């Protein structure tokens, strides 16, 4: 089945229409729970108390000054400052944490003992390759690492995918300028589908160790892309442009957005912000403005994993009946098969659990 997405835009003013009946394919019944309750509405003046219990984990601040509203400063622990540190973090084999510090247009590195340094970017927005901090980014949203220590950055404002080598050299793997250069130069009167999809606000990048490919949400184009960082072979695997390879460059805010499950080449998404890949090769997607968790199977079938499609205060329970308000990030736990997500406007961290 299919339904139309509601009006777009962040925050509680966003409205949405009821989605139609959907065909849901699951191997197991899933339940959802809030693992960090937060407060779902301003009217909840007396949330239930959190009863502490010892589970072997403790929360500490690794880096960042909690007394400041944001800024830039390298240093140890709370002496460091960040500004809107972006989506998924990367952790390399040595235990170093890498952060896309979006508001500072920089990529930061944090050692296990909390020492923060800047490895790429400077205060100015722009796009420039080079070594170390003699490079420019524009609101980088997410970063991930491969086993060799290379970093891959979703450079959201530049509509580009960037690579940082272990020696600190930044290159642009793929951008709209590169895609235009790769296209065959056909006569002006000849129309052929584009071979290389344009990027529009890419985010939520992940390097999949099992196949060596990059996966990311091409948010502004309402689709999901996979790319081989060695050959630059690139393909839309779900959403607008999948299979047909007929793309719209910089679509308008609502163009090509919607909600359709089924075959990947017919599927529609609404500004997906993040993805993760599970051990079976299933790509799990935070379909943000549809308020859904969705998945693309290895054979190209798109299904709804969790959510009703109605933005609402957080309701736990059966996965298909759970409600979200702005699903911005997802992560998969390979040990227990759980999906974690941030339910942004409900101020909660939620998990989808197999029975």
UniProtKB/TrEMBL annotation:
**Alphabetical list of Gene3D superfamilies matching this protein:** TolB, C-terminal domain
The UniProt entry, under Pfam families, shows: NHL (PF01436)
Q: Which UniProt keywords apply?
A: Repeat
Checking SUPFAM superfamilies in the record gives: NHL repeat (SSF101898)
Entries under InterPro entries matching the protein: 6-blade_b-propeller_TolB-like (IPR011042), NHL_repeat (IPR001258)
Q: What is the name of this protein?
A: SMP-30/Gluconolactonase/LRE-like region domain-containing protein
The lineage is: Eukaryota, Sar, Rhizaria, Cercozoa, Chlorarachniophyceae
């Amino acid at each position: 089945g299919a339904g139309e997405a509601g009006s777009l835009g962040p925050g509680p003013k966003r409205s949405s229409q009821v989605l139609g009946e959907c065909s849901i394919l699951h191997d197991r019944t899933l339940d959802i729970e809030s693992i960090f309750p937060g407060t779902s509405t301003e009217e909840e003046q007396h949330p239930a108390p959190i009863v502490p219990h010892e589970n072997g984990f403790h929360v500490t601040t690794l880096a960042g000054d909690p007394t400041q509203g944001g800024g830039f400063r390298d240093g140890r622990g709370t002496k460091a400052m960040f500004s809107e540190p972006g989506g998924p973090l990367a952790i390399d084999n040595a235990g170093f944490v890498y952060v896309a510090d979006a508001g500072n247009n920089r990529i930061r590195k944090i050692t296990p003992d909390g020492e923060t340094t800047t490895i790429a970017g400077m205060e100015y927005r722009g796009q420039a390759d080079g070594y170390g901090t003699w490079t420019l980014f524009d609101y980088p949203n997410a970063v991930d690492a491969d086993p060799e220590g290379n970093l891959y950055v979703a450079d959201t404002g530049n509509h580009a995918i960037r690579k940082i080598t272990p020696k600190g050299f930044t290159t642009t793997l793929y951008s709209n300028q590169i895609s235009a250069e790769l296209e065959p130069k056909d006569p002006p009167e000849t129309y052929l589908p584009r071979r290389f999809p344009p990027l529009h606000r890419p985010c939520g990048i992940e390097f999949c160790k099992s196949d060596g490919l990059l996966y990311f949400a091409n948010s502004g184009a309402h689709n999901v892309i996979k790319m081989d960082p060695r050959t630059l072979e690139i393909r839309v695997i779900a959403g607008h442009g999948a299979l047909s390879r007929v793309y719209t460059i910089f679509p308008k805010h609502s163009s090509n957005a919607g909600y359709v499950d089924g075959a990947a080449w017919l599927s529609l998404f609404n500004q997906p912000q993040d993805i993760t890949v599970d051990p079976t090769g299933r790509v799990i997607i935070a379909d943000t403005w549809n308020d859904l968790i969705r998945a693309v199977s290895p054979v190209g079938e798109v299904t709804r994993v969790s959510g009703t499609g109605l933005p609402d205060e957080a309701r736990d329970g059966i996965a298909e009946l759970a409600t979200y308000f702005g699903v911005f990030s997802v992560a998969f736990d390979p040990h227990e098969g759980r999906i974690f997500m941030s339910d942004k406007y409900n101020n909660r961290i939620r998990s989808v659990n197999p029975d």
